[in-house]
């Protein structure tokens, strides 16, 4: 089985891992992030600039910019990377359901398309594609969101928010379209992969102050994941996940992130004066 080169980059603002996968000639980037200052509404591409510098210094050609889902905690750096290095932006075909949901919830403009056309490629479950000599396979892993996918490249699985490091458990399922039962089934798909499959997580919050980690394995997850390991039933996981979700706050950058990420990282269209605005729901006291 192929063992791709994987270079991780940590986005401190959102505790997100971005990855460069490559075969020595051709590269893909998974889950690129930019900084965003909420008070000023200003985005800063410094995090993806570091990713681009690595690709350029290695003489790699960027073929793919891959989103594991429409993130709710950071703004995608896909447009910036594409403008600088080229490549196609891909995401799971479930993005159309996410777009339809948030077009209604956030009262997006009437012309906002919910057919995924903002992206270059919408991946189907089981679809394969290539990163140079490396074959990649898409595994639909919904539950956290409707559009969540895992990219399996050789012995490496890039799982988005399906699972965290074993001591971090799993992602929340209380966003629109989330479902703990569906997430449990998705995790079982991952656990059916060979035990030595490398799992690269999208986030690490370093519980109890341990060092940051980005890589685990199917065997380690099945043995030690605090939310869903071997022997944990679907009913037990669903009860745990729902109870935990009820205690969680709304992510700080949820609304800015979703409005940008359902557009493949692009901002909303400008108004008649050339100004762009992000909307925020208001709930009176």
Structure description:
With 285 residues, the protein is of the alpha/beta class. The chain has a single domain (5-252), classed as Ribonuclease Z/Hydroxyacylglutathione hydrolase-like (Metallo-beta-lactamase, Chain A). The chain is built from 7 helices and 15 strands. The protein has helices at 46-57, 78-85, 95-105, 180-191, 218-224, 234-245, 254-261; strands spanning 5-11, 16-22, 26-30, 33-37, 42-44, 61-66, 75-76, 88-92, 121-123, 128-131, 134-140, 149-153, 156-158, 198-200, 215-217. The strands form 3 sheets. A 6-stranded mixed sheet has the order 1-2-3-6-8-9, with helices on one face. It has a 6-stranded mixed sheet with strand order 10-11-12-13-14-15. Strands 5-4-7 form a 3-stranded antiparallel sheet. Strand 12 (149-153) and strand 13 (156-158) form a beta hairpin. Helix 1 (46-57) packs parallel to helix 2 (78-85) and helix 4 (180-191) crosses helix 6 (234-245). The N and C termini lie far apart (57 Å).
């Amino acid at each position: 089985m192929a063992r791709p080169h994987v270079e991780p980059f940590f986005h401190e603002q959102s505790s997100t891992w971005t990855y460069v996968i490559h075969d020595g000639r051709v590269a893909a980037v998974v889950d690129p992030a930019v900084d965003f200052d909420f008070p000023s509404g200003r985005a800063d591409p410094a995090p993806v600039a570091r990713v681009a510098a690595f690709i350029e210094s290695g003489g790699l050609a960027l073929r793919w910019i891959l989103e594991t889902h429409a993130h709710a905690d950071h703004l995608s750096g896909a447009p910036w990377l594409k403008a600088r290095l080229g490549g196609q932006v891909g995401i799971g075909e479930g993005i159309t359901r996410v777009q339809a949901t948030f077009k209604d919830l956030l009262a997006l403009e009437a012309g906002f398309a919910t057919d995924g056309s903002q992206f270059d490629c919408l991946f189907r479950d089981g679809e394969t594609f290539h990163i140079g000599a490396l074959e990649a396979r898409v595994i639909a892993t919904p539950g956290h969101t409707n559009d969540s996918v895992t990219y399996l490249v050789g012995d490496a699985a890039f799982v988005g928010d399906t699972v965290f490091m074993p001591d971090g458990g799993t992602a929340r399922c209380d966003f629109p379209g989330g479902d703990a039962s569906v997430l449990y089934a998705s995790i079982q798909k991952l656990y059916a992969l060979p035990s030595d499959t490398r799992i690269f997580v999208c986030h690490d919050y370093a519980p109890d102050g341990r060092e940051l980690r980005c890589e685990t394995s199917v065997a380690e997850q099945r043995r030690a994941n605090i939310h869903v390991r071997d022997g944990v039933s679907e009913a037990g996981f669903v009860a745990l996940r729902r109870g935990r979700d009820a205690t969680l706050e709304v992510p700080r950058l949820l609304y800015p992130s979703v409005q940008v990420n359902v557009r493949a990282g692009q901002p909303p269209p400008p108004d008649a004066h050339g100004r762009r605005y992000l909307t925020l729901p208001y709930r009176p006291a």
